[in-house]
Structures are given as structure tokens and as C-alpha cells.
Design brief:
The protein is an alpha+beta fold. It folds into three domains: 3-75, no CATH class; 81-232, Jelly Rolls (Sandwich), CATH 2.60.120.1440; 235-385, Immunoglobulin-like. It is built from six helices and 27 strands. It has helices at residues 3-20, 28-45, 56-75, 235-254, 299-302, 381-385, and strands at 81-89, 92-94, 97-98, 103-106, 109-113, 118-123, 128-131, 136-140, 143-154, 164-168, 171-175, 179-186, 192-200, 202-207, 210-215, 218-223, 229-232, 257-258, 262-266, 272-279, 288-290, 308-316, 321-322, 328-329, 339-348, 362-365, 369-376. The protein has a 17-stranded mixed β-sheet that branches. Strands 18, 19, 20, 21, 22, 25, 26 and 27 form an eight-stranded mixed β-sheet that branches. Mean pLDDT is 81; it is low at 20-26 and 47-78.
């Protein structure tokens, strides 16, 4: 048997073996060539003039070479492997079928979770993704495409100038290292909305011509055909920002000094949770602190004493006076006759108001709350300092 004949027979056998093992998605011809090159090198090294027989030794050597080449193709540095996926529970699938205990993810592969299922993806850099039910994400090196559904990410610090990118319908998110959630929502009118909420770190979000930075405690909302919006994750912070702007406008119109707006959320036992605006130098005594841009306040935000911040304090007493079973009264003397402070009361939805002075400028009901906003001359700073 000539050397060429042997190569043809061995190459054919290896090719059939690989295809029968469902390796037809790989470059089989290149792999067969690599195996034959290794076999020829082995023959040369042993300085055999001709092959007398193909025994178990050579077959075993060929098997080892095939295994090494397959390993390199599947999990090697140049193989296109970008991570691992495992079901947390329920049915998880890729283009190749359902995922058992775990599976390797190759570049561009699509991971899909079904109803009642979740999946965990660990990227090559150890970043972790928790994929929610009914979601689909395509994974590539340094880039994720969230086609539908949602995911939570814990992204390790990325190399300078090489952020992890998350693409979704109408938005692009760049992550340098943070914890965040990304959701794609199908709206009733057919448009898709991308919502990104940031727990720690900072994220850059792009939609159309606009780019915004999302610090911890904020979310970005991108919707097809609409401008990109950034706002706080906590609804009361967004409402405080609105009340403050409204307070400035009304005080200017009425030609009085601007007071301090606040939200008073009645707890049902005579106490309240209060949101208001204070100077940074006074903020340390409060439970939560946010910037006027809606993000969680950091040391750099509190370093300037005169900077204004939004604060929350719980279980404030002395604001509501009990007047009988289920009856409370709020009566605060004006702190300054020439100032105006918007005070928003949030009461149980079943509450009845007998009288309010001055007249409310806004009243609305939600499913569980009655919300009343009053342009008061009384501030709450004395109560909060007690």
C-alpha cells in the first residue's frame, strides 16, 4: 500500500467518524488534514521506510490526535468558544437542541429560555448572566444581542476601551463592569422598548443620536420612535425631581421665595415616610440619599456642603395628630409667610379628607393611594430635625 493510498483510506475513515459524531458543523476537511499531518509527522519521526501494518498502536495514536484537535476546535483559544450555559431550571435550548446539564457556547450562538425556565451563562471573562423566562440572547465575543425578554448581568471589570456591548432593538448599551438588568418589552402598539436599570457602577446607553450615562440607581428607557430617557429607579425620587421643578416655577410666578418640597407617605399608624431636599452637609442623618439627577449619591456628591440632595427618612413622628379611631389631623404653622413649599400627601386609597387649606393644586387616585399636593407656607424641617 502506498503512502497516498494510506492517507486516502485513513482520511476517509476519520471524515466519516467525525460526521457520524455530529461534527459536520466544524471544518471537517481542515480537521482531517490536521490529523493526517500529525500522522505523517509521527511516521517521519520513527524513520519508517514503509508501513507494514496498521496496528492498534497507530490507531490509538490517530485517536489521540483526533481528540486533541477536537479539543482545540471546541474549547481552545481560537475555537470561537465564548462561554458556558446551564439551565437553572426548565427547558433551555440552542440551535443544536436542548441543553442538558451544561453546554459550550460558540460565537454567535443563540440561547433561548422557554416558559417557566431560566438559564445562567458564564462568559469567558467570568461575567455572569441570568436569563429570564421567554428570552432569547445571541452571544458573541464582547457583544450580546438581547432579542427578547430580559437578563440580569454581573459584569467583571472590562479592559480599558473594550466594554461589553449589549445590543437590543433600538438601543446599544456599553458596560465597563457593573450589575444591571436589561429588558426588551413588546408594547401593545407593536413597538419594542428597552429598559436598562443599573444597580452598581456606570453604564453608557445609546439610542438614535443620543447617548446618556446611567449611574447606580438610574434606568434608561429606549423606545422605537421616541427619545432616550434617563430617570431614577425609585419612583419617589422622580416625583421629588418633578415637585422641585414645579416648586421653583410656582414660587417665581407668585413672586415669593422658594421653600422645600416634600412627599409625606402616611404609614397608617400616625407615622410617615418623608422625602425632601436638603443640603449635602445635612444628609448624613437620613436613611437614603440621591442626587437631583436621580442617581444614588456617592462621596463625591456629598463633598460639596451646599449641594442639594434628595433624602428619605422613615417613621417620622409628630406630623400627624390622632383625633380618634382612624382619624388624624395635620396642622403646621407657616415657617415663613413669604415662602412656598409643595407638600404631597400620599394617603390610603380609602381615605376621606374633610378639609384642606390651602386648596390642593393636584389630586389623583391610584389603585391603592390617594395623592394630594398642597402649595403650603409651612415647612417640615423642624419635624425632620427632631
Amino acid at each position: 500500500m502506498t503512502g497516498n493510498e494510506f492517507d486516502d483510506i485513513l482520511g476517509g475513515n476519520i471524515g466519516r467518524m467525525l460526521r457520524s459524531a455530529r461534527a459536520d458543523a466544524l471544518p471537517v476537511d481542515d480537521l482531517v488534514g490536521a490529523v493526517l499531518a500529525q500522522v505523517r509527522a509521527e511516521k517521519t519521526r520513527r524513520q519508517r521506510a514503509r508501513i507494514v501494518r496498521l496496528g492498534w498502536g497507530l490507531a490509538a495514536a490517530a485517536s489521540v490526535v483526533v481528540g486533541v484537535c477536537l479539543w482545540r476546535m471546541l474549547v481552545g483559544a481560537d475555537s470561537g468558544t465564548v462561554g458556558q450555559v446551564r439551565p437553572v431550571y426548565g427547558l433551555v435550548s440552542t440551535e443544536l437542541g436542548s441543553v442538558g446539564n451544561s453546554a459550550t457556547i460558540r460565537r454567535g450562538q443563540r440561547i433561548q429560555t422557554h416558559t417557566g425556565s431560566r438559564a445562567e451563562i458564564v462568559l469567558a471573562d467570568k461575567s455572569r448572566l441570568l436569563i429570564e423566562p421567554r428570552s432569547a440572547v445571541r452571544v458573541d465575543r464582547g457583544r450580546l444581542v438581547l432579542e427578547q425578554g430580559g437578563m440580569s448581568l454581573d459584569v467583571v471589570r472590562q479592559a480599558a476601551g473594550r466594554p461589553l456591548e449589549i445590543a437590543s432593538p433600538g438601543a446599544l448599551v456599553r458596560v465597563l463592569g457593573t450589575r444591571l438588568d436589561v429588558h426588551v418589552i413588546q408594547k401593545s402598539d407593536g413597538r419594542k422598548q428597552t429598559r436598562v436599570s443599573v444597580e452598581t457602577g456606570k453604564v453608557e446607553m445609546e439610542s438614535g443620536p443620543r447617548i446618556v450615562f446611567l449611574p447606580a440607581g438610574t434606568e434608561g428607557i429606549a423606545e422605537e420612535g421616541r427619545a432616550l430617557v434617563r430617570r431614577a429607579l425609585v419612583p419617589e425620587v422622580n416625583e421629588m425631581i418633578r415637585l422641585r421643578e414645579w416648586n421653583v416655577k410656582l414660587a417665581r410666578e407668585r413672586k415669593v421665595s422658594q421653600g422645600v418640597p416634600c412627599i409625606v407617605d402616611f404609614n397608617g399608624d400616625g407615622t410617615a415616610t418623608v422625602w425632601t431636599v436638603v443640603k449635602a452637609r445635612e444628609a448624613s442623618r437620613y436613611d437614603r440619599i440621591y442626587t437631583l439627577a436621580g442617581s444614588i449619591a456617592g462621596p463625591e456628591d456629598l463633598a460639596v456642603a451646599e449641594t442639594e440632595v434628595i433624602v428619605q427618612t422613615r417613621n417620622v413622628r409628630g406630623l400627624f395628630d390622632a383625633k380618634g379611631r382612624g382619624m388624624y389631623e395635620v396642622d403646621r404653622a407657616a415657617s415663613s409667610p413669604a415662602s412656598l413649599s409643595l407638600v404631597q400627601f400620599r394617603l390610603p386609597g380609602s381615605a376621606r379628607i374633610d378639609a384642606v387649606s390651602p386648596e390642593p393644586i393636584e389630586t389623583r387616585r391610584t389603585l391603592s393611594r390617594l395623592v394630594v399636593t398642597v402649595p403650603a407656607e409651612a415647612g417640615l424641617s423642624e419635624v425632620l430635625r427632631e
